[in-house]
């Protein structure tokens, strides 16, 4: 009698099924990958990688630098202020009755601004005048009495003491009349203070009190408004000690302004103040320049960029794209006589158009690399290529017309990255 085959366990059956499925999956994936690679190989139009340049050097564009005369420009941040800033205050206490100007308008010197209630001061003036009249009447009486006593003392009808008392009383009345006269002048002056006028011409400020408010002379409530004279306008700024030495060497340094939107302020200013000491904390010296401002293009309190021309000097100009920077400073790549790239540290002062103004680090005849900076490494072979003549002419023209701008000290990329 034939025997039945032994029954397979459930776990063995499950393992066999999983193994067959995995084998089929990997066979299909391998066939798909082979077809995909074949299709990419047939349909790809990508050209083969370019062969390395002859000689193994990287082609780079270089410019040969040479010293040239450039303006010495010192740049600083300045703030404008009125050439005269005046607080208009009440000089007598009283009720503010009228505001006679429009806030923010230009006012002339002597223009009426406010009026304080005049009635109390008119009464005080009337009383002072009455007291003066009274003292004058007493003086007349004393003078008559002294005249009579003078005749009697000459006749020896009275004692000399009585006559001396009469003359003393006359002198006392003279003094009382002078005091009464001064009180009249004081009352007239106080009455005139109720009409508050502009002490200078300029731009009026906001009124600090509404009509009907009580203002008290001698405290904070006495401030009524301000007036700022903005033509001419002053600009305060500070420069470092080393920069101040250049300013002193210049005979008549010119000062120009750049507005917040980057536009140039028309006109040239002149220095009208220099601090007599160096700021001990900052190591700077404060300067002040004066500008004509008839159109009121500048208002007090604005921040502007100040560009101070301190003569000319010889320096080297390098395109901004050629300057790289890292945590150790600024550098440029140069092509050496041996055909290899070298990194040179430089001292960059400011911008002139699209160029950096280089004070130290380069010499006449150095060939500065201006492209392919990311591919360069120290000692790498390069093939110098001269720039197009049109590019050189455009760069020279831009440099001759541009005004230098101060270099900004910002965190820069690592060496080898263009600035």
Question: What secondary-structure arrangement, pairings included, does this model have?
Answer:
Elements: H1 10-43, E1 58-64, E2 68-89, E3 94-99, E4 106-107, E5 112-116, H2 119-154, H3 160-193, E6 195-197, E7 202-204, E8 214-215, E9 223-240, H4 241-249, E10 254-258, E11 270-274, E12 284-291, E13 303-319, E14 323-326, E15 329-335, E16 341-352, E17 355-360, E18 367-369, E19 382-385, H5 389-401, E20 405-406
Parallel strand pairs: 1-19
Antiparallel strand pairs: 1-18, 2-9, 2-13, 3-5, 3-8, 4-7, 5-6, 7-9, 9-12, 10-13, 11-12, 13-17, 14-15, 15-16, 16-17, 16-20
Helix pairs in contact: 2-3
Structure description:
With 419 residues, the chain is an alpha+beta fold. The N terminus and C terminus are likely disordered. Strand 14 and strand 15 form a beta hairpin. Among the domains are: 106 residues, Beta Barrel (conserved putative lor/sdh protein from methanococcus maripaludis s2 fold); 84 residues, Efflux pump adaptor protein, beta barrel domain (Elongation Factor Tu (Ef-tu), domain 3, Beta Barrel); 76 residues, Helix hairpin bin (Helix Hairpins, Orthogonal Bundle). It is built from 5 helices and 20 strands. 30% of the residues lie in helices and 34% in strands.
Structure classification: alpha+beta
Give the C-level CATH assignment of the domain at 59-71 and 314-406.
Mainly Beta
Strand content: 25-35%
Terminal Cα span: 96 Å
Note poorly predicted spans: 1-23, 25-53, 397-419
Please tell me what the overall shape is.
Answer: elongated
H/E element sequence: HEEEEEHHEEEEHEEEEEEEEEEHE
> CATH topology of the domain at 59-71 and 314-406, anyone?
conserved putative lor/sdh protein from methanococcus maripaludis s2 fold
**Percent range of helical residues:** 25-40%
Count of helical regions: 5
Count of individual beta strands:
20
Reported for the largest beta sheet, the result is: 13 strands, antiparallel
- In terms of quaternary structure, the protein is single chain
Using the 3D structure, state the CATH architecture of the domain at 59-71 and 314-406: Beta Barrel
Nearest-integer average pLDDT: 80
Rg over C-alpha atoms, rounded to the nearest angstrom: 46 Å
């Amino acid at each position: 009698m034939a025997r039945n085959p032994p029954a397979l366990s459930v776990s063995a059956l499950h393992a066999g099924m999983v193994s067959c499925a995995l084998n089929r999956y990997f066979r299909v994936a391998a066939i798909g990958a082979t077809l995909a690679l074949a299709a990419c190989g047939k349909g790809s139009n990508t050209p083969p990688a370019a062969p390395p340049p002859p000689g193994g050097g990287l082609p780079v564009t270089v410019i040969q630098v040479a010293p040239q005369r450039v303006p010495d420009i010192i740049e600083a941040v300045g703030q404008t202020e009125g050439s005269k800033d005046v607080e208009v205050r009440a000089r007598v206490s009283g009720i503010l009755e009228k505001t006679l100007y429009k806030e923010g308008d230009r006012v002339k010197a002597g223009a009426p601004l406010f009026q304080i209630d005049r009635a109390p001061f008119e009464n005080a003036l009337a009383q002072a005048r009455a007291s003066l009249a009274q003292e004058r009447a007493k003086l007349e009486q004393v003078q008559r009495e002294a005249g009579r006593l003078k005749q009697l003392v000459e006749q020896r009808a009275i004692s000399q003491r009585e006559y001396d008392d009469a003359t003393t009383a006359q002198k006392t009345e003279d003094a009382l009349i002078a005091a009464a006269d001064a009180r009249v002048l004081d009352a007239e002056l106080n009455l005139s203070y109720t009409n508050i006028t502009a002490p200078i011409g300029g731009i009026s400020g906001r009124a600090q009190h509404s009509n009907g408010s009580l203002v008290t002379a001698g405290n904070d409530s006495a401030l009524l408004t301000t007036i700022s004279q903005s033509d001419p306008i002053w600009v305060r700024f500070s420069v470092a000690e080393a920069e101040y030495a250049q300013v002193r060497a210049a005979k008549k340094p010119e000062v120009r302004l750049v507005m917040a939107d980057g536009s140039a302020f028309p006109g040239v200013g002149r220095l009208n103040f220099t601090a007599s000491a160096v700021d001990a904390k900052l190591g700077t010296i404060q300067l002040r320049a004066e500008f004509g401002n008839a159109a009121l293009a500048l208002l007090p309190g604005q921040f502007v960029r100040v560009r101070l021309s301190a003569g000319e000097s010889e320096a080297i100009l390098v395109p901004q794209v050629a300057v790289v920077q890292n945590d150790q400073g600024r550098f440029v790549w140069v092509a050496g006589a041996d055909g290899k790239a070298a990194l040179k540290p430089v001292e960059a002062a400011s911008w002139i158009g699209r160029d950096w103004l280089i004070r130290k680090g380069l010499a006449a005849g150095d060939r500065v690399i201006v492209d392919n900076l990311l591919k360069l490494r120290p000692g790498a072979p390069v093939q110098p290529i001269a720039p197009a003549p049109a590019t050189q002419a455009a760069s020279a023209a831009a440099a001759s017309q541009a005004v230098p701008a101060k270099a900004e000290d910002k965190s820069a990329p690592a060496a080898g990255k263009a600035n």
